Each structure stands twice: as C-alpha cells, then as structure tokens.
C-alpha cells in the first residue's frame, strides 16, 4: 500500500477490535475444532474438518487484510481541522443538486464507508469534486446517471 489509509479514530478502533477478535478469539477456537475433527479419522467426509479449514482460510485472509490496512492507517482527527470553511477529510456537508434536493454526507476513510448512513469515501467521485470547496461553491461531477452540478450548502466538523 503506497498511499496512506486515512481513517478516523473511531474507524481505526473498529478495525483494530475486529483484528483482535479474529486473532485472539475466533482463530484459536477454530484451530481447536479442526484439531479435534482431524482426530476423528477420515477427513474426506468430515464436515467439521472441511468447513473448519475453509473458515480458517477466510479468517486468515481477513486478518492479513486488516493487518495491512492498520499498518498503512493514518488516523486523522476531523475536529482538529483549522480551516473549517472548506471541505476536507471528516467534514459533514450538505449538498444540493440541480433539482434542489439536499443530501447530507460525511467524508470518511475507505474502510468506514456506509452510503446508506451518508458516510462516503473521501476518495469517491463526489468527495473528490467537493474537496477544498466552500459554502456556496458549485461543482460539476460525473456520476453513472450523467453529469450533475452540486452546490455546497453547509460544512460542519465534529
């Protein structure tokens, strides 16, 4: 990972907790189950053994991915933003489109996104278009539905 993984302190905590839970709890329990199942004889028809090995591979992949994301993490505190009149990482902004419909979004790290809750990646097309913008600025953005203009109505930081 060449570029830093910008993330909020809350997002980092959530990733760290998942990593620790998988590494310290789920993985050891699964290894114990696999060991028990292996001792039961024929492994080719042993569902506990087969499923356990498959699940162990999934957990190891997730642990490896989380480890890389945590190593490249750059925790950013949006409340420490000095220029609160422009849109940067961690800003909660209200956007109005051409029809006047408003949408509130918060720019967060890639691992924290939840579009249904209005948490979008700060590398998304919308976020890239509004980075550095001030209240009242209008930006053009290319979406799958076509090109649109959006206006920044409000900017808030925690």
From TrEMBL:
The gene is greB. Transmembrane segments: none annotated. HAMAP family: GreA_GreB, GreB. PANTHER family: TRANSCRIPTION ELONGATION FACTOR GREA, TRANSCRIPTION ELONGATION FACTOR GREB. Keywords: DNA-binding, Elongation factor, Protein biosynthesis, Transcription, Transcription regulation. Belongs to the GreA/GreB family. GreB subfamily. Necessary for efficient RNA polymerase transcription elongation past template-encoded arresting sites. The arresting sites in DNA have the property of trapping a certain fraction of elongating RNA polymerases that pass through, resulting in locked ternary complexes. Cleavage of the nascent transcript by cleavage factors such as GreA or GreB allows the resumption of elongation from the new 3'terminus. GreB releases sequences of up to 9 nucleotides in length. It comes from Sphingosinicella rhizophila. The keyword Membrane does not apply. Residues 6-75 form the Transcription elongation factor GreA/GreB N-terminal domain. The keyword Transcription regulation applies. This is Transcription elongation factor GreB.
